[in-house]
Fold this protein.
Amino acid sequence: AYQKYGYDGIGDICAMTGDGVNDAPALKQAEVGVAMGIRGTEVAKDAADIVLQDDDFTSIINGIEQGRLCSCNLRKSIMYTLCSKVPQFAPTLAMVFGVPEALTIAQVLLIDIG
């Protein structure tokens, strides 16, 4: 069930879907195992990483979209935090090394307000 796709051995993530006892080993071995919640057996549900509650494949697409959106928002939040905290920390670090003050306290507070 699992195959390497892509260029030079760098594979994409491959998901395996199943609902029966015979699918359980493949669900366990796959990077992402997806079992059916309504008609799936308990063995398949236990072996899977994700259990679809409505047995609808469009739920997988919606989940992937939400996951990518969360990842993008987290990346933006981290970049904003780094971009606003470095100018706040740099004058303090410069004072430790004896460099004259580049920003006043008011300017640092205005950077923090964003």
